[in-house]
Amino acid sequence: MGKRLFLAAILMGCIMGMEAKSLKKAYRKYFDIGVAVNLRNVTDEMQGALVCQEFNSVTAENAMKPASTHPREGVYTWEGADRIANFCRQNNIKMRGHCLVWHNQFCNWMFTDNEGNPVSKEVFYERMREHIHAVVNRYKDVVYCWDVVNEAIADGGPNPYRNSRLYKLCGDEFIAKAFQFAREADPKALLFYNDYNAIIPHKRDNIYNMVKKMKEAGVPIDGIGMQGHYNVHWDNLKEVDEAIRKYSELVDVIHITELDIRANKDMGGNLDFKKKAEQAITDEIKQKQEERYVGLFRVLRKHKKVVKSVTFWNLSDRDSWLGTHNYPLLFDKEYQPKEAYYKVKDF
Ligand code: 9MR
Predict the structure, then answer these.
(1) Residues 54, 61, 151, 239: which is the catalytic one?
(2) Rg from Cα positions in the chain
């Protein structure tokens, strides 16, 4: 479909209250199709229409994170998160909440008192609890699940846990506390542990063991979020299949929470990705990306009993945290569907 026609179809669909066949429609018997959004995506008319047309789940890319909503003790800044939540309320789109506790973009003030001295873990937990209750309560009408703890497992090394400030103060107990506080705040929300490289056997097993141990101790973990920051060079379908199979021994719900397939060779959630490095997107890369997306969705469809949601991490290549040169999504930098979009949709 030509560019003008595609955009006209979206607008017509919104005006008439009907939709051209879209990703969310194509997958309605399988799982939700989500997208991580920034503020532009929900304020720009065309981008907002694209979100409404294609997706039935939204995650705030940054706006609900602790550093965004709670920069100082006693100070909440809700504006960005409210705008995204209101967009979802108005358009009847459910939200995945992201995220309550993470070593990055966190409330670092929680670790010290007014004089800059480290606080005890009891004081830290009191602050963390207040934060979790405030955020979860504010959005509980529209957010149906939360990434409660993000990326607490290490990429390698003898200790399975990431040696973060959280871990240094509390050991792995902060994970249990975060889930308990989230459950208290909203007993109905589904609570997720979310991580990247969750298909790599060593890290996968450490995630598995951690979730197993927590669940055996009564920690309310409902689901596992496999982020899914992959690259076009890695044929990883066996790893994806095996990770889903393994995690589903522990949980009834798995979400793919942050999907993109980049053109660079690196992968994961916090690696050196050379965002600005120019590179030509050759036909070979395009074709590989199509194959990866098609193959991945085939595996995900096979696991539809447990995979309940698949979220793309950003709307278009222009919005991607990886930069346009990584060409990672189904919509290009002009918000036009790529060939991969049609291949994923028309399976
Ligand atoms: O996409 C987010 C980017 O805009 C932020 O600068 C970055 C900060 O670390 O976080 C990105 O989102 C991350 C997500 O919250 C957790 N998993 C990894 C994602 C990509 O880094």
Answers:
(1) 151
(2) 20
Ligand 1 midpoint to CA 265 (Å): 18
Q: What is the number of domains present in the chain?
A: 1
Residue 278 bears catalytic tag: no
pLDDT in the model for residue 11? 55
Dihedral sign computed on CA atoms, order 206, 132, 136, 71 = negative
- How many A from CA of 120 to the centre of ligand 1? 29
Q: What is the pLDDT of residue 36?
A: 99
Spatial separation of the C-alpha atoms in residues 138 and 265, rounded to whole Å:
40
What span, in angstroms and rounded, lies between the C-alpha atoms of 181 and 183? Answer: 5
CATH code (residue 155): 3.20.20.80
Q: Which residue segment(s) compose the domain that 146 sits in?
A: 5-345
Q: Name every protein residue with a CB atom under 6 angstroms from any ligand 1 atom.
A: 61-62, 104-105, 150, 196, 227, 258, 269-270, 321
**What is the pLDDT at residue 171?**
98
In this prediction the pTM is 0.94
- Are 90 and 139 in contact by the 8 Å Cβ rule? The answer is no
The Cα–Cα gap between 332 and 330 comes to 7
Q: Which residues of the chain have pLDDT under 50?
A: 1, 14-19
- Residue 267, pLDDT score: 76
